[in-house]
Amino acid sequence: MKWEKLLNRGRFGDLASKSTNNSSRSEFEVDYDRIIFSSPFRNLQDKTQVFPLPDNAFVHTRLTHSLEVSSVGRSLGKEAGYYLLEKYPKLSEAGISAYEIGAIVAAAALTHDIGNPPFGHAGEEAISDFFRHHESGQIWQNHLREDQWTDLCNFEGNAQGFRMLVSKENGLKLTYVTLAAFTKYPRPSDIPHRDVARKSQKKFGFFINQFADFERLANFLGIEKNSPDCWCRHPLAFLVEAADDICYSIIDLEDGCTTGLVSFEETVELLAPILKDRFDPEKLKGRSMTQNLGALRALAIGQLIEECVVAFITNEEGMLKGIFDKALTDVIPSAKALEKITEVSIRKIYRSQVVLEKEAAGFQVLEGLLAVFSSSIYNKCYRPEQFSGKDKSILRLLPEDFPLNGWGEEVNPYGLIRALVDYISGMTDKYALSLYRRVNGISFPGN
């Protein structure tokens, strides 16, 4: 792969391959601004990161997490950009700057959670389980191809995010390179064999009906395949992943300390190996816990950015050849310290009572919503003799543009059920809970 092609400014959805932007903003700044002002991004303000939103302490939502990941991503991209411009003079000749490379990573990082459903990762499992186990989900299996059914039984927030970013309805028309940097897992869900040694194949990055979209993107940027149905990562995707890894490791720990699940003393003990000689216990005296947490977080993130940039530079040629395929945070000096933080976070934060209760509620709410809407849609399309007044009322709650009209044999049932998953997964936590209560008669509008 060649950087000159990997950083092409072409825009997805535009027939012309050249830039159409004549403003003072770069193409990648335009990407960032379009994302910031989009509805899917705004909805992240009421989607769970880890904790339900408490009344007495600030913890992160998907929105604040995404903004912080984007900030870290910009720093990673700019520092890596200085190295790339020095090594590949043709990039400067093409008008690429280190700032632009930082803007690409920042924009892609801003969207990295945009496809996540309500209630965090539990929401992903709830949607998958609905099709695997619930009778109202399983009824669709005989109407779908095997690869389509695999998509539904393995809901993946990364693939949902790619679907949203290339959707005509959202109208974002991002650059190909931002979309490629977003795609950490450049493969479909249904592949014969997964190479467990490749981080890029751990999950999947697009549903089967976006296969052609990603193939067009890969061809445009010159991204090569490493197997018949899997592509190599765009090298900047490693930086987007690193930005996310850095933020959730450090900031989830900070939230855990803020909410009292991890003691301040243990938090300091976990961060000290990352800070190394920058850590000075004397500077913690005479300040509040919140002030100390903020200072330690900033120092730790700064150190991890430096280490990840070095790892990127060291492995950049391997990325271009498609032979390096690990998370940068797994190959840096602080890797073991991050592993320890993850171990403590799983035990004390992610499996805490408040988080488990939130996840249990998420399973109940999402399964309930999917069951109600799925049954009504199925009755309308396949069991008209059972289509009731209740079903009519339920379907009137769907968005106006939901593709129910004109149903017939020529309509793909996968597209129909995919649209339902789009609707449910795009909800905020509070709206999903409110709608669940209303459709089940637990509360009434206005209550």
Automatic annotation (TrEMBL):
Q: Say yes or no: keyword Hydrolase present.
A: yes
HD domain residues: 62-249
SUPFAM superfamilies per the UniProt record, alphabetical: HD-domain/PDEase-like
Stretches of the chain forming a coiled coil according to its record: none
**Key words of the record:** Hydrolase
- Gene3D superfamilies in alphabetical order: eoxyguanosinetriphosphate triphosphohydrolase domain-like, Hypothetical protein af1432, putative deoxyguanosinetriphosphate triphosphohydrolase like domain
Q: Which domain of life is it from?
A: Bacteria
Mind telling me what this protein is named?
DNTP triphosphohydrolase
